[in-house]
Amino acid sequence: MIFPKRHDSSKLRSVINPYILISIAVKNLLSKKLRTFLTMTGIVIGVGAVVFLVSLALGLHGVVNQQVLGSKSVNTIDVTTPNSNAILLDDSNVNKVSQFGHVKIVAPAYILAGEINYLNSQTDTVVYGTNNEYITLSALKFVAGAHKLTAANDAIVNTALLSLIGVSNSKSSLHRSLTVSTNVTKANGGHTTIISKLNIVGVVNTGSGAEIYMNSAPYSAAEAAQYGQLKVEADNRGNVPTLRHQIEGLGLTTSSPLDTLDQINKIFAIFTYVVIGFGGIGMVIAVLGMFNTLTISLLERTSEIGLMITLGARKADVQRLLIFEALVLSIVGGIGGLVVASLIGGIINITLTHLAGSRGVSGTIHAFSVSPLLVIATIALTIVVGWLVALYPSRRAARINPIDALKQE
After folding, report:
1. CA–CA separation, 94 vs 79, rounded Å?
2. Angle 302-310/257-300 helices, nearest 10 degrees?
3. Is the domain of 333 the same as that of 385?
4. Residue 390, in any domain of the structure
5. Are residues 272 and 368 in the same domain?
6. Contacting residues for 270 by C-beta, under 8 A, at least 6 apart
7. Cα 336 → chain centroid
8. In-domain check, residue 113
9. The domain containing residue 149 runs over which residues?
10. What is the DSSP string of 277-294?
C-alpha cells in the first residue's frame, strides 16, 4: 500500500492573507503604544541623522561646485602656451585647433598690461582684447549693464577697476568714457602703443584685480604677435579629454573645469562616507532598539503564537507576522526620519538665505539638499534593515512548539 508523501508544515505556503497579517502586526504594535513610540522615535532619530548629514554633504557639494564653476560650461578648455618665445599662440595654432574634431567654438583673447586714464587719474589694469564668444565662455558674473560688446568702442569693466578710479556705483558707471593705453609686441618683433577711447557698457565682478574687456580689432589690426589665451568649447563633455590631448600635441597647455570638478568630487566622496559613518552610529542604536522590541514581543506572545499554529497557521505565517511588524516600524520610522531631516535642513536653508540676503548676497543657498535618489535610497535601506532585523526573531518564532507554548498559558 502506497501512502501519500507527508510535507513538513514549515515548508507549506502561508495560509493567512498578507493583509490580515499586516492588520495583526499593526494591532500588536499599537497594543504596546509606549514601547512602539520609543522604538520608532529611535528609528526616526537614526534615519534622520543619516539623511541630515548626507544632505549636508550633497548640499555643500553643490554650493562649492556652483561657487567654483558658476555658470561656466564643463565642456570649456582653456588653452595657453607654456613658453611664449618657443611656441606661439598665434592664428596658425588657432586654425589648427579649430580643425580638430568635436570643436564647437574657438574664442581667442589678447591679454595685455594696460593703463586706464579717467578724469585725470591713471591706474594699471589687465586688458582683454576679445569677442563675445570668449566673454560668454568665461561665464562672467555681471552686476550691471550689457552682457556683450556691441559697438567697436564698447568696454566691460570689473568692479575692482571702478573702485580704483573712484566710481562706487556700478550702474552709474555705465556709458562713462575712459581711455586705455596698451603696449603691443608685433609679429615682426616691433612694438607699438595702442590708445583706445572706450565707453563702459557693462560691469562684472571678477575679483580684486582691475580688468577691462574690449574689442580685439585694434590688436588684430596692429598684428599683435600672439594671443594670451584661447577658450575652446567641445561639443560634449565626453570628448573633452580627447580634444585636450590633441591640443596638447601642439605643445600647448590646457586646463578644464573638469579638473576642478573631479577634485571636488573626490573630496566630497570621502566627506560623504565620513558623515555616513557618524550618522550610522545613530542607525545602529535604532536597529538594536528595534531588535530588542521584536524579541521582547516574541517572548510575551509565545502562547499566542502557539495557539495560532494549533488553529492552522503555518510557520511561514508566523515568520511573516514578525517580518511585517519590523517593516512597519522601519518604514514608518524611515519616512519620519526623512521628513524631520528635510524640515530641519529646509529651515536652515531659509535662515542662511535670509542672512546672506541681509548682507547683500543674492540667490538661494542650498546648504542641505535632499535629492529624490536620497529619498529612494533611504526608504530602500529601511526596508532592508527591517527585514534583516526580523530574520532571527521570525525564525525563532517559527520554531516554537505549540504544545510547549500552550502549557505556558
Report:
1. 10
2. 80
3. yes
4. yes
5. yes
6. none
7. 24
8. yes
9. 76-255
10. HHHHHHHHHHHHHHHHHH
Pick from 202, 222, 255: which residue ends a domain? 255
- Contact yes or no for 208/87 (Cβ under 8 A): no
Q: Which positions ≥6 away from 396 have C-beta within 8 Å?
A: 298
C-alpha to C-alpha distance for 25 and 368, rounded to whole angstroms? 36
Spans of the chain below 70 pLDDT: 1-16, 67-72, 299-306, 309-313, 360-363, 398, 400-409
Is residue 311 situated within a structural domain? yes
Q: Please state, rounded to an integer, the average pLDDT across all residues of the chain.
A: 84
What's the angle, vertex CA 87, arms to CA 84 and CA 88, rounded to 5? 70
pLDDT at 10: 44
Place of cell 560634449: 236
Question: What is the distance between the alpha carbons of residues 25 and 328, in angstroms, rounded to a whole number?
Answer: 8
Number of domains in the chain: 2
Sequence-separated (6 or more) residues with CB below 8 Å from residue 161: 116, 123, 125, 210, 211, 212
CA 82 to chain centre: 33
What are 333's three cell numbers? 520610522
- Position 138: which residue type? S
Q: What is the pTM of this model?
A: 0.65
3-state helix, strand, coil in the chain (%, to 5): 55, 20, 25
CB 128 within 8 A of CB 111: yes
97-98-102-108 Cα dihedral, nearest 10 degrees: 80
Whether residues 100 and 173 share a domain: the answer is: yes
Looking only at the bridges linking them, the beta strands covering 253-255 and 211-215 are: unpaired
The answer to whether 121 touches 166, Cβ cutoff 8 Å, is yes
